[in-house]
Amino acid sequence: MSRWVHLVLAMLVLALLPAGFALALALGEPLEFDSEAQRQQYETLTRELRCTVCQSETIHESNAELASDMRRRVYRMTRDGMSADAIVDFMVARYGDYVRYRPPLQANTALLWASPFLLFVGGLLVWWQVMRRRSRPDDEPHFTDQERAALERLRRGD
User: Fold this and answer.
1) For 108-157, how does the pLDDT look when each residue is reduced to its tens digit (9 = 90+)?
2) Helices marked H in 16-144
3) Which residue has better confidence, 28 or 93?
4) Is 38 helix (H, G, I), strand (E, B) or coil?
5) Could you give the C-alpha distances from 77 to 11, 57, 86, 121, 129, in angstroms and in order?
6) Nearest 5°: phi and psi at 134?
7) Which residues, listed in sequence order, are joined to residue 100 by a DSSP beta bridge?
8) What pTM did the predictor assign?
9) CA 139 to CA 36: how far, in whole Å?
């Protein structure tokens, strides 16, 4: 087989790796927990905390070094018996509210929560203005008597 076939096959295998296997590779070793509750807490937290480098991915999805460090920190804190709220509070204290994928509604995040609605209302207002202008009949141009006479002469061909 040619090199291209090997390359395509390798890319296909990499694309089909399950997410759990990719996470284990990112951490470098399989994760061991004392209980299923700890595993659930870890899984939930890694899917609810944002990678502050990638910004659009959770730390579970991200391959950034910071996300890997954050996963290790969540893992250690979970294994040490810390509650999910305590771990989130630690991460917020360290990285700010932005680390939460769903930040709470507070005075400093109100614009973040309201922005989709404000954009939607703004879009509706622009659409309404455009439709209103289209439905108006064009006003007849106002010509002076001299301009009307000149137009009449042009029309007759004088």
Assistant:
1) 777 777 888 999 999 999 999 998 888 776 666 678 899 989 989 998 88
2) 19-27, 36-48, 65-79, 84-95, 110-135
3) 93
4) helix
5) 35, 21, 9, 43, 55
6) -70, -35
7) 49
8) 0.53
9) 74
